[in-house]
Amino acid sequence: MAKRAADNSVMLLYGWLGSTPKQVAKYSKLLERPGRSVQTCILPSTAYFSGDKVLKQYAEGLASDALKAAKTADRVGFFSMSGNGSTAAGLTLIGLRARAEQGDDSAKALLDGQLGCMVYDSSPVQLQPSVLTTGFVSMLALKLGLDPGTVLSTPGVQPASKLAFGAFTSLPSRQRWSQNLYDVLLTPQVSHLLLYSEADPVVPFEMVEDFGKALSNSSMGRVHLEKFEGSDHVAHYRKHPELYRRVVNEFLEEELEKFQQANE
User: Fold this and answer.
1) What's the confidence (pLDDT) of residue 258?
2) Do the Cβ atoms of 28 and 40 come closer than 8 Å?
3) How far apart are CA 225 and CA 213, in angstroms?
4) Torsion angles phi and psi, residue 128, rounded to 5
5) Whole-angstrom distance between the N-terminal and C-terminal Cα of the chain?
6) pTM for this one?
């Protein structure tokens, strides 16, 4: 087969909790290249408190958006930021798998051929009370113009929040969705890049490394973990711009080259 130039790829960029299109735009700019487009999605915070029916609707909608973006693409990549981004990515995969099981050839093609890589910034992580507490409290603090660290250190804030989220996440339906979302992220047989830091106060670095180990046991693709020094949650690009750009660009270019070679 003749070599096919990777000039019509698309990256699906999933933003972090409470992020705005303006905040995510610099990541879109990083990912864009001649012939490589970017589609951005920011899952609303209300999704975490939705029932089964609404979550299925989110999965269907995200899958539909992914298929539209990938319609004319040779290669598709996911770029997920924080737990919110990985939740959106998981819902997308759940929606795609449901369509594939119903005989949708385009969904099968995306999952089995077009999907080329998965990138995670400050994620993924299972939805636990401690993670939801730091994530939602930080989001609300920023919206109010407050320092998240100061709010989180205020006596009583974390215990009360963890108690509330603990009751919520203990619901059987919520536990099932949380596990399904985590498990589906282990299924893509493609290469993965995990960007994280030990200084992240929202997503413990051990959880990211545990996910990397699980990927190594389940995925046929390579798994690369890039640990940044001293950078806050979803702040690796801001603190280490040159290193971040180099790591992301080299990873995407290599996976694109693999695709070219496979189609020669």
Assistant:
1) 66
2) yes
3) 10
4) -105, 160
5) 5
6) 0.89
